[in-house]
Amino acid sequence: MKVCPYIEASFQIIGKKWNGQLIHYLSLCDNNTVHFSDIKRDLSGITSRALSLKLTELVENKLVEKVVKIGSPVIISYRLTEKGIALADSLKPIQDWARDYMDVNISMESEEKEFDEQ
């Protein structure tokens, strides 16, 4: 029996380090849009180089759009595309499964409440 090629293709994206977390993070942001510095601040442990590479990869896969506003200064933000929003929505059942079956230590009560409301 072979693995479904659609499952295999999807895990080629979400199975890579940071990709699933980035998609989920963007889905939580206002208008599914955020600045690089905000992602860097909120995703602890990711380096600027890794974040840049991952965002480029997600843009190439048409899951994220890079938005450049010309001015002084130039403002760059990233937002989920329709395809990215659909992927983020598909991660919700995985989040629900993890809540039910994984032992995750959430340090702050407000964070736990925030995640339970999603």
TrEMBL record:
Origin: domain of life: Bacteria
Domain (HTH hxlR-type) ranges: 4-106
Keywords: DNA-binding, Transcription, Transcription regulation
Organism: Oceanobacillus longus
PROSITE patterns found in the cross-reference section: HTH_HXLR
Protein name: Winged helix-turn-helix transcriptional regulator
